[in-house]
Write a structure and sequence with these properties.
single chain, about 475 residues, alpha/beta, Alkaline Phosphatase, subunit A, Arylsulfatase, C-terminal domain, 2 domains, ten-stranded mixed sheet, 18 strands, about 15% strand, globular
Length: about 475
């Protein structure tokens, strides 16, 4: 997170950039959003005017990355500031043993929980006096476990605790502060009476309105546009007839007669919630004292009901969700803070989600443990690029999809695949400046770069943490 020295220098970096109240912080993370699925990143078919305006009024990054190419470990990296080689969670892991039935609904057991000794950025900000709320998909430990969001720094939680539960957007219940809130009219079918992303967005905005007179931290990990393909009909109708459609009738998630229109509608719906958020900040008079960050947990899904080729979701990049190639890990990253972050700016700074705890702690003037893999990007955000520290490397150690490791050093990118079966898998090497699509492996031509990458891998890979936790039950 941030060292004592960094905390001491926060005041000088933010000189003239503070009000009498510490800045509010809103961290928004989309779910499976592709690198080019926003207009400001080159999307031509899906309309995202509010996020495009956010980029026009703030800073858009072109070289920012998630810490892992799937949900659980990506969220762990973001919350704890540790890269995959040091993280306690390195793959998705569902705890099915803790599922049970209540009022005709399956109460899901959640994922591998964060251990008690792991500190999140929410805990740091809460200790600094921030009111904290998480609204959306958590995926780092069910209620009653050591990873319960209410034990990890959040005053309130509303949404999906379990990732599998979030595979339907008309669920039978949502989690509200550790207990199920049942949703009348929903059967976990194709449609229902209550669209969960709408309920979650509403609760997020209610929190902002209620807590706006004190510093607050909102973490809004929306479940959109992760499958299933589900959106309110009026949103889908805005795209009906624009393109030819092939109905999706498969068994993976819910079927849909117009998958392209629905997928576009889901992203457009998410964009509208961002518009509601910015309107509320202005209404409450806290717009200039609130920093809003928007990103995604990983790349677009590889499942065929999302037509990523039609939408050009990753452009020239190689790889999709589950891959440590750039298409799976390079993410949209937009920061807006009126009067502080230069409007209309574009940054090529190479960063990662595990920079967020250090950055947000510095913004809040907090002092936390220096045991982190992240660096603060606050100088870059304030237009002080000459003062910005650079990463020696960005590191991925992902246990899923056969086991993958990757290292990015400037324009060089080293990748190892299938390391579960072959721990000595050969290193692929790419020069992203000359070969952004990672098509040409140049490892043979650059043995000195390969040796540097291999040395980083050897140094940075810890053994996975043996997380111990206690299961808890929901109580009425």
């Amino acid at each position: 997170m941030v060292s004592a020295t960094a905390a001491c220098t926060a005041g000088s970096v933010l000189a003239g950039a503070r009000s009498s109240k510490p800045p509010n912080i809103i961290l928004v993370m989309a779910d499976d959003l592709g690198w080019k699925e926003l207009g400001c990143y080159g999307q031509k078919k899906i309309r995202t005017p509010h996020l495009d305006q956010m980029a026009a009024e703030g800073m858009r990054f072109t070289q920012f990355h998630t810490g892992a190419p799937v949900c659980g470990p990506a969220r762990c990296n973001l919350m704890t500031g540790r890269h995959g080689g040091h993280a306690c969670i390195r793959n998705n892991g569902e705890i099915k043993a803790n599922q049970y039935e209540l009022n005709g609904a399956t109460i899901y057991g959640g994922q591998t929980p964060l251990p008690p000794e792991e500190t999140t950025i929410a805990e740091v900000l809460k200790a600094k006096g921030y009111k904290t709320g998480c609204f959306g998909k958590w995926g780092l430990g069910a209620a009653g476990t050591t990873g319960d969001p209410l034990k990890k720094g959040f005053d309130h939680f509303y949404g999906y605790n379990c990732q599998r539960h979030a595979h339907n957007l008309y669920p039978k219940y949502l989690d509200r502060d550790g207990k199920p809130e049942f949703l009348d009219g929903n059967t976990r079918g194709v449609t229902g009476e209550k669209y969960a992303p709408q309920l979650i967005a509403d609760k997020m905005l209610e929190f902002v309105r209620k807590e706006h007179d004190k510093p607050f931290f909102v973490y809004y990990p929306t479940v959109i546009p992760h499958l299933a393909l589900q959106a309110p009909q009026e949103e889908i109708e805005a795209y009906l007839g624009e393109w030819e459609e092939t109905p999706y009738t498969g068994r993976a998630y819910q079927p849909h007669p117009t998958p392209r229109a629905c997928y576009a509608a889901m992203i457009a719906f998410m964009d509208k919630q961002m518009g509601r958020l910015f309107a509320l900040l202005k209404e409450l008079g806290i717009d200039e004292n609130t920093i809003v960050i928007f990103t995604s947990d990983n790349g677009v899904t590889h499942l065929k009901q999302v037509d990523y080729e039609f939408f050009d979701s990753v452009g020239e990049l190689r790889g999709l969700k589950g891959s440590v190639y750039e298409g799976g890990v390079r993410e949209p990253f937009i920061v807006r803070w009126p009067g502080h972050v230069p409007a209309g700016s574009v940054s090529s700074h190479i960063g990662a989600h595990y920079d967020m705890p250090t950055t947000l702690a510095q913004i809040a003037g907090a002092e936390v443990s220096p045991d982190t893999d992240g660096i603060s990007i606050l100088p870059e955000l304030l237009g002080q690029g000459a003062r910005q520290k650079k990463h020696e490397f960005i590191f991925w150690d992902f246990a899923g999809y056969g086991g993958q490791i990757a290292v990015r050093m400037g324009d060089w990118k080293g990748v190892k695949r299938n390391v579960k079966k072959n721990p000595e898998a050969p290193l692929e090497l790419y020069n992203l400046k000359d070969d952004p699509s990672e098509k040409t492996n140049v490892a043979v031509q650059h043995p000195e770069i390969v040796a540097k990458v291999e040395a980083i891998i050897l140094r940075e890979r810890d053994k996975p943490v043996n997380t111990k936790f206690q299961f808890g039950k929901y109580r009425n």
